[in-house]
Amino acid sequence: MRLIVVLAITLYSHSYAGTGECEGGIVTVSYLTTRINGRGCTKIKGGLYFLQSDWANKQHLLMGFKKVKNITGPLHFAATKGLGHVKCFSNVQEIHPNGAAIVLLNNEGLLSLDLPSLRKLTYSGHTKAVIIHNNEGFDLDGFLDNMRKKGMKDKEFLSTSRRGFMNSIWAVLFLLPIFLALLCLLGLAAYKTAEEVGEWIKLLMKEKEAQRYRPPESQSV
Question: Which of 9, 76, 184, 199 could form a disulfide with 103 if both were Cys (CB 3.0 to 4.6 A apart)?
């Protein structure tokens, strides 16, 4: 009986692997070894979520995604460490999730995401296709340039950075004293101008009074 069960599981595994379709999920070492590597996955049913994991010296395990051409969910990286140059998705041609297609949030050590074969990327209308925020060291300009070459428009990106935000704060703090100094100068200039206008009005009134003045007629004795 046990032999029959083992044979059934083996046959099921081979038939599942033969379809090339693999389930998506949270990407961990266990997920890769049990669901991806060795199965010849060409399609991921669902999204791939890299969440709060350290991939230093483990990047080779991601090569199980090398044959994947289609992902029916988001490619999501959040709070990871040590991913380096991600090249395992070089054959991905289509990504079509319900929300954003590519999300890169707060990753440390994610240097690049290589998608040279990507030709179709869909997303729901109420969000952006690509969301990127606070990925220290990531080649953002290179990534966005490559996506533009694939036909994506700037309005489809949402890219922010903590560094850019902090630079904005420092710029405001630096410019604030200059702005206040300019306000003081403008106020002083306005005060001086008001004084001069007041003096001019007084002088004008005195001139009018002088024009109206008539000396008294002399009386004869």
Answer: 76
